[in-house]
Design brief:
D-Maltodextrin-Binding Protein, domain 2; MetQ/NlpA family ABC transporter substrate-binding protein; five-stranded mixed beta sheet; 44% helix; 2 domains; 15% strand; signal
């Protein structure tokens, strides 16, 4: 009896030691593994603009979960605040224009473009130069001596120059006035305080609905794009998470394009479409994920050098990361 108990006791001791050793090993291995939230979370800065709508669609439809990535959308009231957060490393990515990409690199924040947001085709992300309701300016010939409201050294300034040059208007014939805040620019146009202004949609459509006249818009040619960009450091630390976030943006963009009515309420809310346009303004469509062309990037870089915004043009390879579009 004592012998049987002794053997049984030995077995219990051996099993207990094995469980203890296994438990310690498993705990140590778990501690050495990066936590899921640390390895996968991607913080994206967003503004209330239509270019960011796929982020909210992906959130609503659970696309981030399907891609195995945690995404945190961080809202900002202005591009300046968003870019400052990008510089400080508080967010990993954002949708912005090519000027913002170059300016971030200029101040020492290395970033890479993953894909176009809006603007893969001329119909996406419209900009327009409009004349005020009572200006009497009905065509581009009337721009000679007129005041053009813009945001100096911005994508608005770039697009204005390209449209005017393409249509044979001499830039020196137009008096530019820098009015950085778009709502103020819109109000000054509609109240005839300035003759003309360059505005993006939906404000361009709102101005038109309130009596302004479209002199030219950029739907005839692909002049501008927004791009989805990331801090290079974030890409290096979390390449698979970044790729997954890009895939989710692309999947959501296609869902939105295929079923715009399904996301109509979400669009009106997140893009802050003016009340006067809620019934008439179309939900945007998004092209499949793709990089901007070298020509599109080079055109912006050349303009920025001419404006002395950057000391020299960045090469295409310095600005894009094609690997982020791979699975």
């Amino acid at each position: 009896m004592r012998k049987r108990f002794s053997r049984f006791g030995m077995v219990l001791i051996v099993l207990s030691l094995a469980i203890f050793i296994f438990g310690c090993s498993a705990q140590k291995a778990a501690e050495n593994q990066p936590k899921k939230s640390e390895s996968k979370i991607v913080k994206i800065g967003v503004l209330p603009i239509e270019d960011n709508l796929p982020f909210y669609v992906a959130e609503k439809d659970g696309i981030y979960t399907k891609e195995g990535v945690q995404v945190e959308l961080v809202s900002f009231a202005s591009a300046m605040e968003r870019d400052a957060a990008m510089q400080a490393g508080q967010i990993d990515g954002q949708v912005a224009d090519l000027l913002a990409v170059a300016l971030l690199k200029k101040i020492g924040t290395d970033v890479k473009i993953a894909t176009i947001g809006l603007g893969a085709t001329p119909k996406e992300g419209r900009f327009a130069i409009l004349s005020s309701p009572n200006s009497g300016i009905k065509d581009l010939a009337g721009l000679n001596g007129a005041t053009l409201g813009i945001s100096q050294n911005s994508i608005i300034d770039y697009v204005s120059d390209q449209m005017l040059l393409d249509k044979g208007v001499k830039l020196d014939d137009v008096k530019k006035m820098s009015i950085p805040k778009m709502p103020v620019r819109l109000d000054m146009l509609l109240s005839d305080q300035i003759n003309t202004a360059c505005l993006p949609d939906p404000l361009a459509s709102l101005a038109q609905a309130k009596g302004a006249h479209v002199l030219v818009d950029d739907t005839y040619k692909n002049i501008s794009q927004t791009v989805f960009l990331f801090r290079t450091k974030s890409i290096q630390e979390n390449p698979e998470g970044i790729k997954a976030a890009v895939r989710a943006y692309g999947t959501a963009g296609q869902a939105l394009t295929d079923n715009p009515n399904q996301y109509r309420d979400l669009f009106l809310e997140k893009a802050q479409i003016p009340q006067d346009l809620k019934d008439s303004y179309k939900t945007p469509t998004f092209s499949k994920l793709q990089l901007p062309t070298e020509e599109e990037v080079e055109s912006v870089m050349k303009w920025m050098v001419e404006k002395e915004l950057i000391p020299q043009a960045y090469d295409y390879q310095e600005l894009v990361d094609p690997s982020l579009l791979s699975n």
